[in-house]
Amino acid sequence: MVGAMANNGRIRSAFPVANGSKDLTPNSAPASTAGSEYGPVEFTREDVEALLNERIKYKSKFNYKERCENMMDYIKRLRLCIRWFQELELDYAFEQEKLKNALELNEKHCADMEVSLKNKEEELNMIIEELRKNFESVQIQLAKEQTEKLAANDSLGIEKEARLAVEKAQAGLTEELGKAQGELQTANQRIQSVNDMYKLLQEYNSSLQLYNSKLQGDLDEAHETIKRGEKERTAIVENIGNLKGQFSALQDQLAASKASQDDTMKQKAELVNEIAGLKVELQQAKDDRDRHLMEVKTLQTEATKYNDFKDSITELETTCSSQSSQIRELQDRLVLSERRLQVSDLSTFEKINEFEDQKQTIIDLKSRVEEAELKLVEGETLRKKLHNTILELKGNIRVFCRVRPLLPGENNGDEIISYPSSLEAFGRGIDLMQNAQKHSFTFDKVFVPNTSQEDVFIEISQLVQSALDGYKVCIFAYGQTGSGKTYTMMGRPGNPEEKGLIPRCLEQIFETRQSLRSQGWKYELQVSMLEIYNETIRDLLSTNKEAVRTDNGVSPQKHAIKHDAHGNTHVAELTILDVKSSREVSFLLDHAARNRSVGKTQMNEQSSRSHFVFTLRISGVNESTEQQVQGVLNLIDLAGSERLSKSGSTGDRLKETQAINKSLSSLGDVIFALAKKEDHVPYRNSKLTYLLQPCLGGDSKTLMFVNIAPESSSTGESLCSLRFAARVNACEIGTPRRQTNIKPLLDNRLSLG
Question: Compositional bias of type Polar residues: which residue ranges (predicted)?
Fold first, then answer.
């Protein structure tokens, strides 16, 4: 039943009242325990298990009054437990709705965060593109500086050559001065003039020394400023290195959630490497500047001796100062770029942290939703178990309603069928409109038109399992012709997804039989198939075609129906076959389908003209415990009721319609007598009711599918079918009894349960 909850995806509420009581409206509230004689209580898992496993003790087994009172008290406690579970189920549903709303809000916020991250990524790309352009301009300027530096080096070489020439000239003058010493006396006037010139040169030299000392002071201040700038640059580089380390860690995290940003991060890393290379070239330029300054100092010392090179020294100083200003400008631009990069990295880091927090919040909300859904599934499973226990104690026939979808060419006109959305009736209620009047019905389960065959089978899978456990199980489909009974039971041939209940039941039984072999169980399975056509039983597995069908519609063989003392029904002269696999049964089903009576009417292209009964007898033995079980699975596809005014039947079709309506009318009389608990139940009025006697009034687990056609022209027949199903659901047929320790009867007759 847990699988049924998971596949349907709905919350199935409890079924505390029978169809014989007041109909549930869509606005009906869940039952409360405030007015019960026990007061508001809560149940634990142990209380529920104890309640289910409780055995009623009697002082005297012949004191039926005491037994009835104890049984009524036990049923009251079960109903109280179910009401408590219904209230708990409402709380879980409300909490689940809150969690889903919170999850939707967080998912929306997460989507907004992703859009913001994309915008930030675009901004980073623009910044990186701007940095690239700046880098290209810096490269162009550096190339110009390199050209100027080469020109300065050339001029410096020329100046060195000139200095060498001057030195040679000085040597020649010294020699001439030595020669001129002999002529010193004759050249006193010339010497005096030279002395005067020397004094003037000394004064000029002193002024030049003062100017040189001033330049040296300015140069020292510039060196200190450069040193402070170098220290600040080193600290900034260290900070940038730390930030780069943090950025690389964040880059790894971002790559895990956004793989598309890998290329951007790689380009960013390349840009950082280019900046580092630019820093190296900048350092080289600084070294060249320092070397030029040293050369300037050397030239300044030489300038005291050679005044002719003053202009060259001034030009070199001007070049160095211009290079220093350009270097400072480049440093400022580099610092600005690094700051912008740092700001963008911090913004990205904050966005990533916020995104991770939202992601963790979503994960927590999803886990809470999963826990709430698990609690709902557990509560629904326990509620179904309690509900099934009450049904077994009451002995009611379970009723499932299935509405088929509209077929091509059908016109629904006004919507005649609706489904209440209240929690109490959700999945179990159906409303039908006729002449502006609404008729409400509640069953054990209601399947909407888009329900798949698999979802329908999941709801009855546990009931089929009971046949392997030794119970008698009967499932039959009822409804007007063309409402989908044969599709529900047999499915659509050649389409595995639309297999009916009979093929799916057989697959489950054979799979379960295989899995129980490890526990020591061995099962033997026997199959029989018959149809009731014009109040005559036909053996559909017979190989004698004359025995199956004759011209007058009467079988020459007499298949008598007999009931034994154990509540089993035997059909004489019926073909019984042992089966080993579901494939064998599928072959037999195809054989029976070819032999079954079908015909065309105005209401249905292929209308079943007989009641089809499939019986599977299960005999199991456990070799380790020597326990024996006997179960019977009856799957019945009833012929559809129809009105002569709509079907247009004539001839043989008219006789078939009269026989079908008569047998279904007899079935209605039996149900009416059972509902009123009359002493006499007219089972013998038809072959169908006599064959189904153990299923309707014995110890069998019985389930009826009422099939409904949704088109407006079938409103009258649909209302009759729903009313009949409500009476069936109110019938109490007794508590199912498990058949154990009974040797299997392997003769030529088969029990129908």
Answer: 22-35
Cβ proximity of 632 and 472 under 8 Å: yes
Give the model's pLDDT for residue 747.
Answer: 41
Binding residues: 479-486
Written as one string, the DSSP assignment of 422-476 is STTTTTTEEEEEETTEEEEEE-SEEE-TT--HHHHHHHHHHHHHHHHTT-EEEEE
Q: Could you tell me the sign of the dihedral formed by the alpha carbons of 32, 36, 42, 45, in that order?
A: negative
Are β-strands 536-539 and 561-563 bridged in parallel, bridged antiparallel, or unpaired? Answer: unpaired
Write out the H or E segment, with its range, that includes residue 80.
helix 64-181
Using the CB atoms, write b or e for 443-480: b if 16+ within 10 Å.
bbbbbeeebebeebbbbbbebbbbbbebbbbbbbbbbb
Label residue 113 exposed, middle or buried (CB < 10 Å: 0-12, 13-18, 19+).
middle
Centroid of chain to Cα 675:
46
What pLDDT is stored for residue 253 in this prediction? Answer: 59
CATH numbers and ranges of domains, the chain: 395-542+560-598+607-741 (3.40.850.10)
Which DSSP category does 12 fall into?
A: P
> Within a 10 A sphere around the Cβ of 637, how many other Cβ atoms?
27
Binding-site annotation, residues for ATP: 479-486
Q: What is the pLDDT of residues 55-105, one digit of tens each?
A: 777 666 677 788 788 888 888 888 888 888 888 888 888 988 989 998 988
**Contact (Cβ atoms closer than 8 angstroms) between residue 456 and residue 501:** yes
* Mean pLDDT in residue range 223-234: 62
Average model confidence (pLDDT) for the chain?
Answer: 75
Q: Are 92 and 375 in contact (CB under 8 A)?
A: yes
Tokens of 130: 């701007």
287 contacts 148 by C-beta, under 8 angstroms: no
Residue-wise pLDDT for 599-656, tens only, equals 555 444 555 678 999 999 999 998 888 888 888 999 998 887 766 555 555 666 677 8
The CA distances from residue 51 to 47, 64, 76, 182, in Å, are: 6, 22, 11, 147
